[in-house]
Recover the amino acids of this structure.
């Protein structure tokens, strides 16, 4: 059986979460739908929405895109004052309907729904402990571990139970927890996974990215701080700050690739950061060329910055088919390779007889870059220079980003000159770590472990995905 982790040449999206608290119960599920639609880039395997209906929680979730899972009839049945929603790309647990979120569970004091973005690093140890005490698991996701820990720690005060489990679980997490009475947002102590707060006239919103706050008709207020617990109920919104002192370590790949360019995360605009990365690339590695273009879409802001810094025309050299299936679902290698041509096509009339610079946000395995360079040369380009708006990806992530075995990361085994030879580019340059930080305007505050191996906390001493 083909393993999807071997076939894709990008780091995979994580997950996206939303929360809605409104005095207009008839629109709550629709707002959650709009928020999830805006976060679709963060996960395309499954989608779900849970709503507090009366004294309980009703939900609907299934495999597929948001627009495939929900319609007006389904949303019309989900009426209540609170909702949480989730789009998933699996990092822990198989891609199955039973692992779709929100996870809705009943415990002795009621029901709760949990939407989780991230990945715990001590899941197995916690699961062993719970199973030894008689707990039976229905899914293979670490979110169920969190749910069981909350239920065991609940003694009448949900916030206290949440604070207790935050001292036990390790790793990266942004959580939206819905009980019958309140909506709770939580961000891990390092701020690895993003979560923000928005406001509408009729209530409050939570979301992985500010673009979802806008899609739900809200006003972005601020990011949830690392380790902070935010509680929303009929009394308004309350913040419980973290009593742990740790350095903020936002995931740098949110700014390189994952987040939508119109989002703001931890005070930084994603588009501007990517544009600045292109400017820094131009300063580090200028080249004489006739045209600059990107590998769409996340490389586009960097390509614009690179072109404007050097005064080279920017244009479209590659066209993306937004309706093409992901290449990893093809049944054999030959068809998977053809999948690159299905997803991307070259504008031959634009690149023919030109020296071109192709800007990409990152290179993970190198196989797709190699095929794209060949396609551009076959279209008649005289020279193809590749510039990458991030340093080489050399290490696996344990915090909610789906990376291949480390042995498949081309940056872990080959030098820049060897990668240039492998992809058959006329020149190649990766943005330096210093250039990337200059692009953000900050000297620190990021987790860059996939680039430099400096993990902010202890991680399993084996490579991700079983290496």
């Amino acid at each position: 059986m083909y393993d999807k982790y071997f076939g894709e040449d990008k780091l995979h999206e994580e997950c996206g979460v939303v929360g809605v608290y409104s005095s207009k119960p008839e629109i709550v599920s629709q707002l959650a739908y709009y928020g999830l639609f805006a976060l679709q880039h963060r996960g395309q395997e499954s989608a779900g929405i849970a709503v507090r209906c009366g004294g309980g929680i009703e939900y609907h979730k299934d495999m597929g895109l948001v627009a495939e899972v929900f319609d007006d009839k389904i949303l019309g049945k989900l009426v209540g004052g609170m909702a949480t929603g989730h789009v998933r790309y699996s990092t822990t647990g198989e891609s199955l309907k039973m692992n779709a979120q929100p996870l809705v569970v009943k415990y002795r004091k009621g029901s709760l729904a949990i939407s989780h973005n991230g990945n715990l690093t001590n899941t197995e140890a916690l699961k062993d402990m719970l199973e030894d005490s008689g707990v039976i698991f229905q899914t293979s996701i670490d979110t169920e571990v969190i749910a069981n820990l909350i239920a065991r720690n609940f003694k009448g005060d949900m916030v206290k139970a949440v604070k207790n489990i935050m001292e036990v679980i390790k790793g990266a997490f942004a959580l939206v927890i819905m009980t019958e009475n309140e909506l709770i947002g939580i961000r891990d102590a390092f701020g690895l996974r993003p979560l923000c707060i928005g406001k509408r006239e009729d209530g409050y919103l939570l979301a992985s990215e500010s673009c979802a706050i806008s899609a739900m008709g809200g006003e972005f207020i601020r990011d949830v701080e690392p380790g902070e617990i935010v509680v929303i109920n009929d009394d308004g919104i309350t913040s419980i700050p973290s009593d742990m002192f740790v350095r903020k370590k936002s995931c740098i790949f949110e700014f390189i690739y994952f987040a939508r360019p119109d989002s703001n995360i931890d005070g930084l605009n994603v588009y501007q950061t990517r544009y600045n990365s292109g400017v820094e690339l131009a300063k580090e590695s200028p080249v004489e060329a006739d045209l600059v273009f990107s590998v769409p879409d996340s490389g586009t802001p960097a390509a614009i910055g690179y072109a404007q810094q050097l005064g080279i025309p920017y244009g479209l050299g590659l066209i993306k088919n937004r309706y093409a299936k992901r290449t990893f679902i093809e049944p054999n290698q030959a068809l998977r390779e053809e999948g690159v041509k299905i997803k991307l096509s070259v504008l031959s009339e634009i690149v023919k007889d030109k020296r071109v610079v192709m800007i990409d946000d990152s290179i993970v395995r190198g196989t797709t870059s190699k095929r794209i360079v060949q396609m551009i040369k076959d279209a008649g380009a005289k020279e193809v220079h590749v510039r990458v708006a991030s340093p080489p990806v050399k290490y696996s992530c344990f915090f909610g980003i789906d990376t291949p075995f480390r042995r498949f990361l081309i940056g872990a085994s080959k030098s820049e000159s060897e990668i240039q030879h492998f992809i058959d580019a006329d020149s190649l340059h990766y943005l330096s770590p210093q250039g990337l930080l200059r692009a953000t305007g900050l000297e620190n505050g990021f987790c860059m472990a996939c680039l430099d191996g400096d993990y902010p906390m202890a991680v399993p001493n084996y490579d991700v995905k079983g290496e």
The first strand starts at residue 15 and ends at 22. The chain is about 30% helix and 25% strand. The CA atoms of residues 46 and 63 lie 4 Å apart. Residues 4-246 form a domain with the Glutamine Phosphoribosylpyrophosphate, subunit 1, domain 1 fold (CATH 3.60.20.10).
